[in-house]
Amino acid sequence: MRHHVLIVDDNPTNLKLASCVLESAGFKIDTAPDAEQAQLLLQRSVPELILMDVELPGMGGLALTRILKASNEFKDVCVVALTAFAMKGDAAKALEAGCDGHISKPIDTRRLPEQVLAFLRHAGRD
């Protein structure tokens, strides 16, 4: 079975790069440039994992994560923060918001598929 991943990132280059890398590794990918578009996509289908950019226009990624994790429908979806922040404590903020982990930007394209699979395995979705 192909794993279904939603990538939420406002940077078109990052969105395209992550989606191409994961699609070529066999993942089914949906993409959204902001939290609002992500919410519309989530009305149609529930992914197994969401790669969530922390800094989004409008509603931020951590705010959307809090909303999703508070809902019965999405509380078990694995959410992984995508962050360019290298500051100490950013990973803790993502975890406090309900993220299941984080991946630092710039994305390491050689490691991304295995990182996503590791989060899915940890969430019991392998």
Sheet with most strands: strand arrangement: 2-1-3-4-5
Taken as a percent bin, the fraction of beta residues is 15-25%
Helix/strand order, N-terminal first: EHEHEHEHEH
How many domains?
A: 1
Question: Brief description of this entry?
Answer:
This protein is an alpha/beta fold. The protein contains 5 helices and 5 strands. The longest helix has 13 residues, at 12-24.
Give structural notes.
- The chain has helices at 12-24, 35-44, 61-70, 90-96, 112-122, and strands at 4-8, 28-32, 49-53, 78-83, 101-104.
- The model has no long low-confidence stretch (mean pLDDT 93).
- A five-stranded parallel beta sheet has the order 2-1-3-4-5, with helices on both faces.
- It is globular.
- With 126 residues, the protein is of the alpha/beta class.
- 40% of the residues lie in helices and 20% in strands.
- The protein has a single domain, classed as Rossmann fold, CATH 3.40.50.
